[in-house]
Amino acid sequence: MQIDLNGKTALITGATGDLGRVMARTLASCGADIVIHYHANEKKAAELQNEIRQLGKRAITVQGDVTKEADVLRMKETASAQLGHVDIVVANAVIQYEWTTVLEQPIGDYISQFESCVLQSVFLAKAFVPAMKEKKSGRFIGINTECAMQNFVNQSAYTAGKRGMDGVFRVLAKEVGEYQITVNQVAPGWTISDRDRDNGTEVSEGYSSTVPMKRRGTDQEIANAVAFLSSDLASFITGAFVPVNGGNVMPAI
């Protein structure tokens, strides 16, 4: 038994980011052709495209602002024209900002999180799910966060955006399930990425001490969960919120 995505095409938003790059490489290594979305980092997108092509898979880059419906529709048209039907959509992009208390957080940060978490999900669904319905097959995956369950201080804008995203995904899962489309979320904890490896910041004893597995997860472990949910092995899993954080948060029944 193995994860086989041959013949599939996957779009990853924010594919030039720390987690997105590893997701793109991982899905390509499982056989998928890749649509690499980027917002500003054209150079990194081109480098990633070359990497994936060296794996023997097709890859294109698409630029766009995922908080703008016109951009998402343009991305869909470009992907369809160059690679055909998009089977897997991974909503990974998110706007970064500085965290502070509810009383001090600028209102613009709440708006940006709503736009990049909730509206991105809606725009991607409107653009890509109709074709999945026609084909009666598809994978729609969102990258959420353990913060959505923790509700720690200074997390309000991020948590609000991701909890809103969670609502969209759960409803969408019920609306499109009859078409054999699965809709799931992966919720990373504080994850080790290339940035940590480059800076020597992989170890954080304060955070790891709260995690049952006593360590931080890696970008590859997040990508592995995405690959599984993208595959036929997860064909009867939908509406799931899957923490990939060593047990740091545990959804209750």
Automatic annotation (TrEMBL):
Q: What is the lineage of its organism?
A: Bacteria, Bacillati, Bacillota, Bacilli, Bacillales
- Keywords, sorted A to Z: Oxidoreductase
Q: What family does this belong to?
A: Belongs to the short-chain dehydrogenases/reductases (SDR) family.
Concerning Pfam families, the annotation shows: adh_short_C2
Quick one: signal sequence residues? none
Gene3D superfamilies, alphabetized? NAD(P)-binding Rossmann-like Domain
The portions of this protein that span the membrane are none
Q: What is this protein called?
A: SDR family oxidoreductase
